[in-house]
Amino acid sequence: MKRIRIATLSHVLFAVLLLVGCNQSTSSEKGAGGGSKKLVVGVTMLSMQNEFIVNVHDEMAKKAEAEGVDLITVDAERSPLKQVEQVESFIAQKVDAIIMNPCEVEASSPAVTKALAAGIPIINVNSETSTKPSAFVGSDDVESARIAMKFIAEKLGGKGNVVMMHGYMGQAAQIKREQGAREILKQYPNLKLLAQQTGEWDRAKAMSLMENWIQSYGPQINAVFAHNDEMGLGAVKALEDAGLKSKVIVVSIDAIPDALQAVKKGTLDATVFQNAEQQGSKAIETALKAAKRQAFEKQTLIPFQLVTTANVATFLKP
Amino acid sequence: MKNGFTTSFNQVSTSYKTRVQGIGKYGLLAAFLLICIALSVLTPRFLTVQNLMIIVTQVSINALLAFGVTFVIITGGIDLSIGSMVAVTGVVAASFAHPDTFPVAVPLLMGLLAGVAFGAFNGFVVTRSNVPPFIVTLGTMTIGRGLALILSNGRPVSNLSDSFNFIGGGKVLGVPTLIILLIVAFISCTIVLRKTVLGRYMYAVGGNEQAARASGIRVGAVKMAVYTLCGGLAALAGILLTSRITTGQPNAGAGFELDAIAAAIIGGTSTSGGSGTMTGTLIGALLIGVISNGLDLLNVTSYYQQVVMGIIIIGAVVLDSLHNKTNA
C-alpha cells in the first residue's frame, strides 16, 4: 500500500517537473540569438488569452519587425510570480530593454526594481506597477469609465437607475473603472446606483447576472455600465431575451470587434475605444529610445474615444 | 477487546446510523427545499415561473457537465479537463457556424466529435497507463486550454448563424431550448446509469475494481466508455454555451470543472466511487444555481456568495462521509 502511495507521489512530482520544464523552455528558447548587433527587447504580457492584450502584442511585433528589433515574448498567464521570474530571466539574458504588461499593481513591482537595478530600462504598457518603471505607455482607466458613465448620464438626462457590472474584484482595471464611474455618479445626484456585482469579465456570467437583475428590478433599470465589452454584450443578450433592450442603455469599455458590431447594429449603445495599436507601437518606440540611451517620454497617455452609432464606422476594420 | 467494543458501539449507534442514513437520502432534497422556501420568504421575486425558468436555464450547462463527471466519479475516477473541453468544443463548433457556410448540423457534429475524441483520449491514457486520472486529466486540462487558444488564435470566434444561436438561446413553445435539452440529457443519463449493463458495471468498477475484474467485467472498456461519455456531454455543454453567448471563446469554461464536480458531490456521489445518482447530481446543480440566483436577487456581494458555496460543499461531503462510515 505504502509503495503504491510513493509511486503515485513520484508520478505527481514527474508531472509537476514536466509542467515546470515546459514553462522554462518557452521563456529561454529564443534568448540565444544575441550574437548579432540587433537590439533585443524582452516582453512579458499579462495574458495572451485576452483579446485586447493580444492586439497590443501584435502591434508590438509588427513595429519591432519594421524597426529590425528582436522581440522575445512570454506569457505571464496572469501570475505576477511568473512574471517576476520571466523578468529575471530577461535580465540573465542581458536583453537591451524590457516591456512589461503588469499582472498586478504590487506583486509585479519587484520585477521593475530588479530590472532597474540591473541597469536595463523597463517600460510598463497598458497598466502600471506601484514601483515607478523607466516609462509608462498606456491609457488612464479611470478616464474610460468617466467617458462611459458620462454618456449614460447625458442619455438619461441626469436622472435614473444604473446597475454596474464589475470586472474581477481587486484588479487594477476594475478598481479604476469603478472609481471613474463613481466620480461621475457623484456629479449627478439623481442618478442612482441600483445594484452592483462582479461579472468576472465574462460574457456568460454577465448574462446570468443580468437575467437575475431583470428578475429583481425589472423595469426599474434604466442603464447598465459594464467594466468591459464581454460583460456588456452578455447584458445586451439577457435584455434582448427579456424584450427590454429598447428601454435600457448598455455601455461598456474596450471596443472589441464584437462590441463594434453590436454598436453598429444598435444593440450596444456605446463602448469606449482603447487604442491597442498605439499602445503597442509607442511601447516599442519608447523601449528602443531607452535602449539606445536617447531621451524618451516618461509617460505616454493614449487618449480614449467614445464609440457610438455616429462614429462606429471609423473603428470597424475592413 | 476490540470485537467487544465494536459490537457495543454498533448497538449503541444503531439509532444514530439510521438517522444519518435518512439524512443522506433525503437531506439533500430537504436542504434544497428549505433554501427555496427561505428565498421565497426573503424576496417575492424568487418564486415566479419566469425566475425558476431562468434558474434552470443558468444551471443547465453546469448540470450537463456534472452528469458526465458523475459517470466518471462513480467508477472511482475524476475528470478535470471538462472545463477545457467546453472551450475546445465551443471554438470548434463556432468555427463551422458562420452564417452561409455549413448547415447547422455540421458545427454540432464537429463539436461533438471533438468532445468525444478528447474524452476517448482521456480514457485511453487512463486505462493504458498507471497514472491516476487526476494527473491525466490535469494534463489534458492544460492541453485542452492550449488547443482552444491555438484553434482560435487566442480570439473569440464570433459572427455565428442565427440557426446555430437558436440551439442554446432559443425557445420552443415558450420553453428555453436549454431546459428541454437538460431534461432529455437527464433522462438519457439516468437510463444509462440505472437500466443498462454499462451502468451496473460502472458501479461495480467503482465499488471494487479488483472484484469487478475477477467477475469478468472488462474494466478498461467501462472506463473508456465513461470518459468518452463525459467528453460527449462536455461537448454538448460547450456547444450550448457557445450558442447561448453567441461566440466561441477560448477562455470559456475555466473553473467549470470545479462547479460540476461540486454539483456531483453535493448530490451525494461518493468521491471514492461506487455510488451516486443522476437525480442527486441534478439537485446538486440546482442547489448551486438557486443559491447563486437567490443571492443575486438579494444583491449579496460575490465575496459572500463564494463563502456560502464553500460551506455547502463541505457540508455535503461531511454528510456523505458520515453516511459512508455508518454503512461500513
Automatic annotation (TrEMBL), chain A:
Presence of keyword Signal: yes
SUPFAM superfamilies: Periplasmic binding protein-like I
Cellular localization per UniProt: Cell envelope
Coiled coil regions, renumbered to chain: none
Signal peptide bounds: 1-27
Superkingdom of source: Bacteria
Principal cellular location given in the protein's record: other
Residue ranges occupied by any Periplasmic binding protein domain in the UniProt entry: 41-292
CDD domains associated with the record: PBP1_rhizopine_binding-like
PANTHER family: D-ALLOSE-BINDING PERIPLASMIC PROTEIN-RELATED
Record-stated family: Belongs to the bacterial solute-binding protein 2 family.
The protein's name: Inositol transport system substrate-binding protein
Organism: Spirosoma utsteinense
UniProtKB/TrEMBL annotation, chain B:
Localization in the cell: Cell membrane
Keyword Transmembrane: yes
One of the Pfam families matching this protein, by short name: BPD_transp_2
Ranges annotated as spanning the membrane: 26-46, 80-98, 104-127, 134-152, 172-193, 224-241, 303-322
Membrane topology according to the record: Multi-pass membrane protein
UniProtKB keywords: Cell inner membrane, Cell membrane, Membrane, Transmembrane, Transmembrane helix, Transport
InterPro entries named among the record's database cross-references: ABC_transp_permease
Protein name: Inositol transport system permease protein
Organism: Spirosoma utsteinense
